[in-house]
Structure formats: structure tokens, C-alpha cells
Amino acid sequence: MTHAMPGSLVWLASYPKSGNTWLRAMLTNLLHAPGDDFSVNALAGGITGGDRHALDDACAISSAEMTAAELLPYRALLHRQMAAEATAPFFVKTHDQYAIGPDGTALFPADASRAAIYIVRNPLDVALSFAHHSQQDLDATIARMADPHATLNVWPDRISDFLPVHLGRWSDHVAGWTQQQAIRVCLLRYEDMLADPAMALKRVADAVGIDTNPEAVAAAVAASSLENLQLREAAEGFSEKPANMPAFFRSGRAGEWTAVLSEAQVARIVADHRAQMAALDYLPPSIA
Questions:
Q1: pLDDT attached to residue 4
Q2: Would you say 259 and 273 are in contact if contact means Cβ atoms under 8 Å apart?
Q3: Quick one: 105 exposed, middle or buried, by C-beta within 10 A (0-12, 13-18, 19+)?
Q4: What is the rounded CA–CA span in Å between residue 122 and residue 186?
């Protein structure tokens, strides 16, 4: 049962490799009856709004011939169409920065939105996981996390089936979503999710108006353990895994950076993102 709330879309927003897919797995299990079987490739919160073909069909445009700025009002229109057709709460994963176009159009319209769940993870660990996900070296990944123009789904030799996703700087991504005032935000730190996943899932359920109980939350958390997700990926594959990536569900631990990053790499990340890291209690003790 859900409570009456305005809007139907719930944005599951995050910088990549911050726990978004794990939260989607927990929500999927929570929304299904205990014991229901479903594919790991049918998790709640798909990237419907990022499908190039859905946008082209809905708005009668050729998005491949348009800039990101030109696409923004059409993407906002698609989001409103999705909200009108969806049963609330309808979860939508996004890695886009929160964005407002030059004419004031919001990429994520407030009138279509029930809430935003913003998941944030220590950028020192994000760097490791993002490098693994992209099959890119750490220094290049760290530079990418500080690039205001960093964008996913843009290739020099082909057009992606998915729309460009403007990541920008990690710090700007965090600030954009957490400081905007148009959509209610439930901020989750990945490290707090790891420490008490049941509490995190209960916070999300409360934020979007899903009635639940401790037994259902505990069952959803248990069914979404890393070990279970790894088994499902091994059995079914995972359609969201890049083709050149060995496995999507890898380790998920917090603090791995302490054994991998050099002092220079830690210093670079802190120099790039100190203010947001300090605000989220992510500064290493030796630097804080």
C-alpha cells in the first residue's frame, strides 16, 4: 500500500558505482511478495528515461543530431509522459547531474517527481570501482571524476542506444542533487547502507510512501545480498554490465581505497573534491 503523494517518479540518482543497483535490487525484492522469483535483469528503476529510441519515438525527433542542451526540454517532456503513465511510486535510475536548461526547464520536472533518492559514496572508493567498471586506469578515472564535461554514452565511432549522460565533476554531481530545492531528497551514504541496509531501505520506503514492516524489509535485504546478486549474475548474466567487464557485482566493500590508492592519488582526489568530502565526512583522518 502507498500513501497519497504528488508526482509518481522517484529518481534513484547517483554518480556511477555508488550503490544504485544494489538499492534497486532491495527495492525490487521489497515490492515483490516474499518468495517471488524474478530476473536480475528486471530490477525496479530501469533507465527508461535514458533510452534514445524511446525519446525519439515520444517526441518525433532524431536525438543523434541534437546537442545535450537541445535535448533537455524533450527529455523533460518524456519524463512528464512517463509520470502520467506510471503507477506511483515509479523508480527511475539516473546518473545525470541535476540540470536546468537556459530557458528554466528542469531535466527532472518537479511536478512529475515524488522524490529523489540520492546515493553518495566516498569518492576514494568510487575511483576504484569506476576504474574497474570502465576498464580504465586509476589516474585516468580520477581525472575523469574532476572533469566538468565528463559524459557517458558518447563514442567517437558510433551512436549509443542510450542518451548522453552528463556526469561532470563528482563534487558538482553531489551538490546539484543535494542542494536543489525543487524535489524532496532522501540522502543515503553508501557506507551507511552497508552498515545497516535495513535502516536505509526503511528510509527509502518512508520517503516515497511505501508501507512496509520489519519482516519484509529484512527479507528484501537478505535476498539482495552481494552473494545472491553474484549468483544471479553468474546464472543469468546481467544486461547492464559493459561487455568488457568481467563481472558487475564485484566486492561492494567500503574502504578498499586504503590498500590500493597511492598517497598522490588520494591527495589528488581530496584536492579536487575537499569541500563535498568534508561535508559528507569522507576526508581521510590523516588529511582532515
A1: 46
A2: no
A3: middle
A4: 17
